């Protein structure tokens, strides 16, 4: 190197030529900058989620350019004088704007709107008889990242739309990453992946005006599903309450396809995967969903993040239905390769194999939830695919789509996609290559890198494709005859629902078809309904003011599957949200007692008052979380009205109402909140003089799910029992029509 005082002046040769080292030898890349650090520190998958260091990102650091140059000013561009034009030489301005110009990447072609969470999966070991997958052996803990999504809407669309939901799980196992990319509905619209662009084009907004957003209630969707009748079963699930989940936390998940497990001895078993939420399966009612989409389009995203932040970690048990791997791959008359069919649990019980707990929110939406790349072909030893023609096309599509979405073939190097197993591939170069690969011989066989990396045998954890006999066959484009039954499972599903749920299905079809302009489309869909169930068809036809057609097909009756109904169970109440309506005249000691009791059960009590701040009296003060302006019934699973300090009779003065109508004098926003909660069959309660407010809001005393009492404690206990049942279902026959 030149001596320190040996300054090099342009144009003047220096005394010694500058030393120049060509960087030929590969070296480890520098550790990432603090703000680029991959998910490594805290969360189960490695994300530094919640760590104080990331909460104050880059704390104590100087602002720099992307090249590490410290900056003195990032607010003013470099100009020829304060009022002059901006100079092209402003490298910082150009870097800042150029990077900004390229901040967006293409959204997913489907499932664009989603929410993610980190967690952990602990296996029970019950599956080890049927699979050699290491992460399913007894008591193994595997980090996971889950992404829930809607299918149709764009990235900024509302959460509570009527749609199927995606339920994708990435297991970072020691043997490589395994992705279970499922939905909240066990059947699919199409049998052959070749039809996927058709169903998606039909369901997406109309190509001319690009409306409606995130909706199936339009002509092209119903045109397609009424013509392509194999879509009828999935459509019926979408029209049921499953199409509008209460929360991502209260959804079941399904792998949909049949997969093939292989055990250590090489024996194979066909399986279907199920996620069972510990929180129970719970849905919205349609009017509630529509209000939510205006009041809080991020409802599901917020709910998931809030629950995790509050420590109410959502949990799902993973289970499998197992079937013998017979030559015909049929089970009790159901073709296991037909993804428009599910196997009722009554015929093949779901056997639990592990528990997933989501316990950390992402640190950065884009880095994790947006850039995560799932693929049904990310398999581990012990889990293999079948010939389901929908699954086979998916095996092509997911890898392909990431290349345009994530800008090249190196997306596995993005922190959220990095396997936790050692990676020694021979993939090189390409857009966004972040690794500095050593070695001279990324090919096999080689001698220059000592023959490395080696191939593993099955005993060393290699994935070995299950040797499957492929029958001598002719090349042709057609389905097996067993795929021809398009209606029996739609009928089975409808007839397995409770009458309240059936009523919701009828209302959903009537709403959606009522939004179609083409009468030919409505007529054709009514024809499909006639083949599914005559009563369903008649009720929808009546709602549309159209004649109900006769069935045109002989559809076999199957035994109903009561397990598909959401009505009847009780579930943990932790994480449920209860609003307490109070004002300055309320007995604050009782409000505090209600809050404590709800909190004690893991629920989230929120005090709703005329204005923000605190409610104070008699030396007591209670923090207000919602005001009459910011609160709406849809945020709450139940509502309580606090009693006042004065006797009940005084509080009701001037507030008499006819049933179903709010009385004069009651704040209309409170009246709306209470009557909506009542109409949506939510538990409502009041203690002391609060009962008069319920009556003033038109809520009949003693109706199902309406609780009264003298003190907060007794009302809270009763309310909690009702919340465990999710809704006051008995209220629906009276209020159901209004609720839809
Ligand atoms: Fe997907 N699907 N899909 N799909 N799918 C995608 O992959 C596709 C299907 C599902 O949170 C895309 O990375 C084809 C069934 C989920 O990132 C794309 C076919 C099931 C997600 C794609 C299907 C799913 C996707 C778009 C018919 C339930 C979101 C972005 C053969 C078992 C994953 C992406 C996430 C996403 C293709 C059918 C579930 C284009 C061709 C059946 C949960 O590759």
UniProtKB/TrEMBL annotation:
Q: Which residues form a coiled coil?
A: none
UniProt-listed SUPFAM superfamilies = Class I glutamine amidotransferase-like (SSF52317), Heme-dependent catalase-like (SSF56634)
Record GO terms (molecular function) = catalase activity
Catalase core domain location: 64-452
Q: Which domain of life is it from?
A: Bacteria
Q: Which Pfam families match?
A: Catalase, Catalase-rel, Catalase_C
The record's catalysed reaction(s) read: 2 H2O2 = O2 + 2 H2O
Q: Cofactor(s) for this protein?
A: heme
Q: What EC numbers are recorded for this enzyme?
A: 1.11.1.6
Specify the signal sequence span. none
- Keywords in alphabetical order, please: Heme, Hydrogen peroxide, Iron, Metal-binding, Oxidoreductase, Peroxidase
Q: Where is this region: Disordered?
A: 1-58, 549-568
- State the similarity comment: Belongs to the catalase family. HPII subfamily.
Q: Which PANTHER family match?
A: CATALASE, CATALASE-B
Q: What is its biological role?
A: Decomposes hydrogen peroxide into water and oxygen; serves to protect cells from the toxic effects of hydrogen peroxide.
Name the chain's protein.
Answer: Catalase
């Amino acid at each position: 190197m030149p001596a320190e005082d040996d300054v090099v002046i342009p144009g003047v040769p220096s005394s010694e030529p500058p030393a120049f080292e060509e960087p030929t030898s590969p070296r480890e890349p520098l550790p990432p900058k603090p703000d680029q650090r991959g998910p490594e520190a805290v969360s189960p998958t490695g994300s530094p989620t919640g760590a104080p260091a990331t909460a104050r990102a880059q704390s104590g650091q100087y602002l720099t350019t992307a090249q590490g140059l410290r900056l003195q000013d990032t607010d003013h561009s470099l100009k020829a004088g304060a009022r002059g034009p901006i100079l092209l030489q402003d490298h910082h301005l150009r870097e800042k704007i150029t990077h900004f110009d390229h901040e967006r990447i293409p959204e997913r072609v489907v499932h664009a709107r989603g929410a993610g969470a980190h967690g952990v999966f602990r296996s029970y070991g019950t599956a080890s008889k049927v699979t050699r997958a290491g992460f399913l052996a007894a008591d193994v803990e595997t980090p996971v990242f889950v992404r829930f999504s809607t299918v149709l809407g764009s990235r900024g669309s509302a959460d509570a739309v009527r749609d199927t939901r995606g339920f994708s799980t990435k297991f970072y196992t020691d043997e490589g990453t395994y992705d279970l990319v499922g939905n909240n509905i066990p059947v699919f619209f199409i049998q052959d992946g070749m039809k996927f662009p058709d169903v998606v084009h039909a369901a997406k907004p109309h190509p001319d005006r690009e409306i409606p957003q995130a909706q199936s209630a339009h002509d092209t969707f119903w045109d397609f599903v009424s013509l392509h009748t194999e879509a009828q079963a999935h459509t019926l699930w979408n029209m049921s309450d499953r199409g509008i989940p209460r929360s991502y936390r209260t959804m079941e998940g399904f792998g949909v396809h049949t997969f093939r497990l292989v055990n250590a001895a090489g024996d194979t078993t066909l399986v279907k995967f199920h996620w069972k939420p510990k929180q129970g399966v719970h849905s919205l009612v349609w009017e509630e969903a529509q209000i939510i989409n205006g009041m809080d389009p991020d409802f599901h995203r917020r709910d998931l993040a809030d629950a995790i932040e509050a420590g109410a970690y959502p949990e799902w048990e993973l289970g499998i239905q197992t079937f013998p791997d017979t030559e015909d791959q049929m089970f009790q008359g159901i073709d296991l390769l037909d993804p428009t069919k599910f196997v009722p649990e009554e015929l093949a019980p779901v056997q639990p194999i592990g528990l997933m707990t989501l316990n950390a929110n992402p640190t950065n939406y884009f880095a994790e939830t947006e850039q995560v790349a799932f693929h049904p072909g990310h398999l581990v030893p012990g889990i293999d695919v079948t010939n389901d023609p929908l699954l086979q096309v998916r095996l092509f599509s997911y890898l392909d789509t990431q290349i345009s979405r994530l800008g090249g073939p190196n997306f596995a190097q993005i922190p959220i996609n990095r396997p936790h197993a050692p990676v020694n591939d021979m993939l090189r170069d390409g857009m966004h290559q972040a690794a500095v690969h050593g070695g001279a011989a990324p090919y096999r066989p080689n001698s220059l890198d000592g023959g490395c990396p080696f191939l593993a045998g099955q005993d060393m954890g290699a994935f070995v494709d299950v040797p499957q006999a492929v029958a001598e066959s002719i090349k042709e484009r057609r389905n097996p005859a067993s795929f021809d039954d398009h209606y029996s499972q739609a009928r089975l599903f409808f007839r397995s629902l409770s009458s309240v749920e059936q009523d919701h299905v009828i209302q959903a079809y009537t709403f959606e078809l009522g939004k179609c302009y083409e009468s030919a489309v409505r007529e054709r869909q009514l024809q499909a309904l006639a083949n599914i169930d005559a009563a369903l068809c008649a009720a929808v036809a009546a709602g549309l003011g159209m004649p109900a057609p006769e069935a045109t097909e002989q559809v076999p009756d199957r035994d109903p599957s009561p397990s598909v109904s959401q009505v009847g169970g009780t579930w943990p109440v932790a994480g449920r949200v209860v609003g307490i309506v109070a004002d300055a005249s309320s007995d604050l000691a009782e409000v505090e007692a209600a809050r404590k009791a709800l909190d004690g059960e893991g629920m989230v009590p929120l005090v709703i008052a005329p204005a923000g701040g605190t409610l104070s009296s008699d030396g007591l003060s209670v923090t207000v979380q919602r005001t009459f302006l910011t609160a709406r019934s849809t945020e709450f699973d139940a509502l309580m009205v606090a009693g006042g300090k004065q006797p009940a009779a005084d509080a009701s003065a001037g507030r008499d109402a006819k049933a179903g109508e709010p009385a004069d004098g009651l704040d209309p926003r409170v009246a709306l909140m209470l009557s909506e909660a009542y109409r949506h069959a939510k538990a409502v309660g009041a203690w002391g003089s609060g009962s008069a407010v319920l009556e003033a809001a038109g809520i009949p005393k003693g109706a199902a799910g309406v609780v009264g009492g003298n003190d907060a404690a007794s009302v809270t206990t009763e309310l909690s029992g009702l919340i465990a049942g999710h809704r006051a279902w008995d209220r629906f026959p009276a209020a159901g029509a209004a609720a839809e």
